[in-house]
Amino acid sequence: MLKGMTAHANDFAVDVRGLRKRYGGVTAVDGLDLGIRRGEVFGLLGPNGAGKSTTVEILQGNRSRDGGEVSVLGADPATGTRAWRSRVGIVWQDESAPAELTVRETVRHFARYYPRPRDPAEVIRLVGLEAKSDSRIKALSGGQRRRLDVALGVIGGPELLLLDEPTTGFDPAARRQFWDLIRLLADEGTTILLTTHYLEEAETLADRLAVVARGRVVAEGTPTGLRRRYGGEASVTWTEADGSPRRELTDTPTRTVAALMHRFDGEIPGLTVTRPTLEDVYLRLTGQEAAR
Ligand code: ADP
Predict the structure, then answer these.
(1) Which residue's CA is the closest to the ligand 1 atom numbered 7?
(2) Please, what are the averages of pLDDT over each run of 10 residues along the chain (292 residues)?
(3) Are residues 137 and 237 in the same domain?
(4) Burial of 134 by CB count in 10 Å (0-12 exposed, 13-18 middle, 19+ buried)?
(5) Cα(162)–Cα(20) distance, integer angstroms
(6) Quick check: is 222 in a domain?
(7) What's the CA-to-centroid distance between 18 and ligand 1, angstroms?
(8) Which atom of ligand 1 is nearest the CA belonging to 24?
(9) Quick one: pLDDT at residue 243?
(10) Is 107 in the same domain as 218?
(11) Count of domains in the chain?
């Protein structure tokens, strides 16, 4: 029994129960539960102010909590040791590195902080900065700078990588390149938690995601599963022979279309069948429908 429980606990890189955090009169995190399995890319999706950053800061051990249980790689981040910290990769925005150093010098320098660092040259290649190895940091573009930040986040060979809004401010091309990098890291077996308010990012990258609103998880699952569970019915629209538009909401759109085909004896005028997108689900769950 005990053995079984231990194995279960080890399946989870992150296990959070009933997490709470208040800033003065503001409740930022309000009973949040989260379970992230090892090897998973997990997306924490939610609007600004939902409590995502606060949650990530608590997981990193950089912010205290007011309640709840938190286990990250088997330890409580509030009392995490240096050895524990070296297993958790944190990507800071604009990690303070001397602007005069080159990319190679910087990555090598940061490698010295860890007991078992990755090979700096390999990490530089991984983040796609090989051609910039000898460039000074001050000469990097914004996107290249962000890649360096990721290199510094993974140089210690972390088992878990925590990314808070990693692509905010990126142009679409830089965002796509960054997604490729995340996938590479995931393929290597790194567990990744990323927060985002970009739905497309969560849908593209995450094996599973949790939608957070007002400090709580309001839905959790795979992108496809969430759409199926919360999306509601498909909508079938067509035009009647007298020109009047018709719409039917149904769980069985194929059956509706088959019946219409039979009735119209062939082509159905103006036929459309639409299913809810993940965006519809997201807006519904976060109570932002009115904003559309
Ligand atoms: P998200 O990352 O989802 O945008 P945050 O965790 O940053 O959400 O913020 C959640 C809530 O907590 C917001 O209402 C925010 O204004 C508040 N908050 C965040 N950080 C602080 C802080 N250091 N001091 C006071 N209030 C904060």
Answers:
(1) 53
(2) 49 96 97 96 93 96 97 96 93 75 96 94 91 95 87 93 86 84 91 91 93 94 86 91 94 95 94 86 74 38
(3) no
(4) exposed
(5) 19
(6) yes
(7) 18
(8) 25
(9) 94
(10) yes
(11) 2
Range of the domain at 250: 231-291
Nearest by Cα to 64 from 23, 15, 14:
23
Residue 257 exposed, middle or buried by CB count within 10 Å (0-12, 13-18, 19+): middle
Q: Residues 168, 236: one domain?
A: no
pLDDT at 171: 79
- Between the CA of 49 and the centroid of ligand 1 the distance, in Å, is 5
pLDDT given for residue 279 in this prediction: 80
Considering the domain architecture, whether residues 245 and 193 belong to the same structural domain is answered as no
What residue ranges line ligand 1, CB within 6 angstroms?
23, 26, 28, 46, 48-54
* Ligand 1 atom 16 nearest Cα: 49
How remote is the CA of residue 27 from the centroid of ligand 1, in Å?
Answer: 9
Domain boundary among 185, 212, 227: 227
Judge whether 12 lies within some domain.
no
pTM: 0.82
